[in-house]
Each structure stands twice: as C-alpha cells, then as structure tokens.
Design goal:
Blueprint lengths: L4 E4 L18 E6 L7 E6 L7 E7 L17 E4 L13 E6 L3 E6 L9 E5 L3 E8 L2 E5 L2 E5 L3 E5 L5 E5 L5 E7 L3 E2 L34 E10 L3 E9 L4 E6 L4 E4 L18 E7 L3 E8 L2 E2 L20 E5 L15 E5 L11 H4 L7 E2 L3 E6 L5 E2 L1 H5 L8 H13 L1
Parallel strand pairs: 8-16
Antiparallel strand pairs: 1-18, 2-3, 3-18, 4-17, 5-24, 6-7, 6-27, 7-14, 9-12, 9-14, 10-11, 10-13, 12-19, 15-20, 16-17, 20-21, 21-26, 22-25, 23-24, 23-26
Bound molecules: fe (ii) ion.
The site of fe (ii) ion (FE2) has 4 residues, from loops.
Length: 409
C-alpha cells in the first residue's frame, strides 16, 4: 500500500519514549515486509510485548496442509462452490480448492463466529478475502473493518485477527499469496499515486477504525498458520488488541468491488482494464486480481461483445462468478461457479454466445465476477475442488455447439 496512514496516539519521532497511561511505557513493534526494507507499520502496545506466551506452544488440532486431487489429467475445471456446505467458523471452515507454490484459493462458508478469545494469524501468506455473502466484522489489532457483500478485505501476513459474523451464515472467497497485495503498479505513477487513467483510486479504501486498547490479562489463544499450512496454537498472556496507536503503510483495508471504475473502448476491452490488485511482480511471481463489474460494451457498429477464445499461454486463470449472469457462458455457470482454466488449454465463450452478444453493442452488460491470473505459476486442483467439480465441464463447449446447430437445422 502506498497510502501512509496514522491512527491513535504515538510519538512523532519513532523509537522514543511514550506513555499512553501515566508511568507505563508503551512498547513499539514493527510489522514489516522484505526484511527491514519493505512497506511496514509501527504499532505501539499499551504495556506488553506481543511475544509474551503464558504456556508452551502446541500444535492445533486442525491444519491447512493442502492435498492434490487424485486425477492430474489436463482439463478445464468448473468447481461448484455453491454446493460446498456451510459449516464451521470463518477460519476453521476454510477449504482450499486450488493451490500452487505461492498461491492458495479457498472458500469459507461459516455458520458461526470464531470462538471467544480465539484469534488467527496467517504467518505464511498475505490474504485477500472477497465477500460473496454475509455480514459481520473483521477485528484486528489495527482496528475494525465491516464485512458486507462485495467487499475485498486485504489482510497482510502477520496480522492477528478474528472474524465475527452477524448474518445467519457467510460465504467468503479467499486468496492467499506469499507476496504482498498492492494496487496494480501499471496504474500508479512514479510516486506511487494512482494515475488519472487508473480504474482504481487508492484513496477509496476503508482503513480500520482503531478501538480503545484492551488492557487485559488472561488466556488468549492465537492460531498461527505457518510452514505450508501447519497450525500452532499460542497462548498469550495479554489481549492482542492492545494497540494505542499505529502508523505506516502495511495494514488491513477494505475496497468495494463496485469502486472498480470500468474502462470501455469502441471495441472489446481486454481484462487488464479490469485489474484491481496485484500480488508479487509479473512475470516472476504472484498474480493479478481483476474485477469484472458491469461494463459498457463496445459501440463500434460491428463490435462483438463476447470475448475471443484465448490461449493465455503463461497464466493459469481462475474466475469466480459472484453474479449468475455472464453472456459468454450462459447456461453453464451460475452464482458461485468457479472456473479454472490452466495455461496449457485455450478457453472461450460457447455455442452462439458471440452472435447473441451483438445485441449488447453499446449497452451496459451486467456482470460481477472476480478473476485471478497467475504470474506465471501453475495451479493444481485440491481434493475438495475435485469433489465439487462439474464432471462434464470439459465437454461443455462441444455440447453447446451441437445444441446450437440442432436448433438451427
Ligand atoms: Fe479467460
């Protein structure tokens, strides 16, 4: 993040004495990336270091070590995430569906909040949640962020947090990456500010509202994800939300998908115009996140709104359909559909989608989807993704083409 922010109280000069409570020295912590050289924030704890464990660490009774599908035949996938059951809490209920060397895509469909006095910290990866459904609050030591449909929630690696839901259940899509989340560098000027042509404006983020520091001793359990999905449970003697102030450029934030401001042109607009976030650096590592919000289709008198078939030979592509309508794949996908198209195969609209899409020329095409394109990592379907697959997906184009022909003859 490039927006340097400050919340609460802390001394103007770093690493100098400060007393939030009279006579009690506040203690500084740096939450930083890339060694001591990347984006970071400075936090001030009311009286205790975050290292104080009251009991020896122990392995949790759950973990997130991913297991590959039993079948590695090259094929496109359609994972029916709407059929994955609602269960568990926001953390323990997460289920990975795709994974690679530095990326994991999961779904979490919780029916309850996290247990009281239990916190989670992903010490392994940065996180991006997309809220498909549900309401609640993300509570972090940086403060609170509301949870509601259509939000992206960005949680940097190493942030202690808990999720409380206020709706009957919730539906989260989760991207994890070894690399930090930023707005796309290609839309930033050389000082890190979004250019006037950018579809995203970095100041449209919501920053956590810092709460009063919780100055309480007790048993606070922090489940830390580490080393490829293992979970170790730490017992902290002091409440982890004991921050009196913080400042810097590494912090959780939210961004509404509807604040991705579409860019159209006379003929079909390619996905880079839809890029909202980036993790890592193309072409070396990480991925791009694109927001397919409703878009004005091309107004060229012969424009075809449906996309072309594409062989994007370097990127594996995941697309999550938040809203069930999508002209190019009408009749195949519905809300909650996740398609996964490996780089080794082309993918395309089907049947007579190209013909039908001409009626959208110069009109608003309603859609809502989130896409992840890797730079240029290969992803693998997990056991869970395989279990909830549409078994006939690889044949869906052929089937649609033949049905279209049958109608015409
Ligand atoms: Fe695609």
């Amino acid at each position: 993040m490039t927006v340097i922010t400050k919340r609460g109280k802390l001394p103007k000069t770093p690493h100098t004495e400060f007393y939030y409570l009279p006579g009690v020295l506040s203690l500084e912590e740096i939450h930083g990336t890339y060694g001591f050289s990347g984006p970071y924030s400075r936090k001030l704890h009311i009286r205790s270091y975050p290292t104080e464990q009251s009991k020896p660490p122990k392995k949790a009774d759950f973990n997130f070590v991913v297991k590959a599908a039993p079948d590695d035949t090259l094929q496109p996938y359609h994972i029916l995430t709407h059929n994955i059951p609602f269960e568990g809490d926001p953390i323990q209920g997460r289920k990975a569906v795709l994974f690679g060397s530095s990326t994991i895509v999961s779904v979490s469909k919780p029916i309850k909040s996290m247990a009281e006095n239990v916190f989670f910290k992903n010490g392994d990866k940065h996180e991006i949640y997309y809220i498909q459904d549900g309401e609640g609050v993300l509570k972090t030591d940086y403060g609170n962020l509301s949870i509601r449909k259509g939000l992206y929630l960005i949680v940097p690696k190493g942030t202690p947090y808990r999720i409380e839901i206020s709706s009957k259940n919730a539906f989260f899509l989760l991207f994890e990456s070894s690399y930090m989340t930023t707005f796309p560098p290609n839309y930033m000027n050389n000082t890190g500010q979004a250019t006037l042509m950018a579809p995203v404006i970095e100041t449209e983020i919501d920053v956590p509202e810092l709460q009063e520091p919780i100055d309480k001793k007790g048993d606070y359990l922090l489940d830390v994800k580490h080393t490829g999905g293992k979970i170790t449970r730490l017992a902290l003697s002091h409440h982890p939300f004991d921050i009196v102030g913080w400042e810097g450029s590494l912090y959780p934030f939210s961004f509404d998908i509807n604040n991705h401001h579409g860019i159209s042109r006379e003929i079909h607009t390619a996905p880079p115009m839809r890029q909202t976030f980036q993790s890592g650096t193309a072409p070396h590592n990480g991925f791009s996140i694109c927001s397919f919000v409703s878009q004005m289709e091309g107004w060229h008198p012969k424009d075809i709104a449906a996309p072309y078939a594409h062989s994007n030979v370097d990127s594996d592509e995941m697309m999550f359909f938040s809203f069930g309508e999508y002209t190019a794949r009408e009749g195949v996908i519905k809300a909650g559909s996740m398609t996964f198209h490996p780089a080794s195969l082309p993918h395309s609209p089907h049947g007579d989608s190209a013909l039908r899409s001409m009626s959208l020329r110069g009109k608003l095409n309603k859609m809502l989807a989130v896409m992840l394109d890797t730079f240029f990592e290969s992803l693998t379907v997990t056991e869970c993704g395989y279990e909830f697959r549409d078994k006939d997906y690889a044949m869906s184009w052929y089937k649609a083409a033949n049905e279209t022909t049958a109608v015409k003859t």
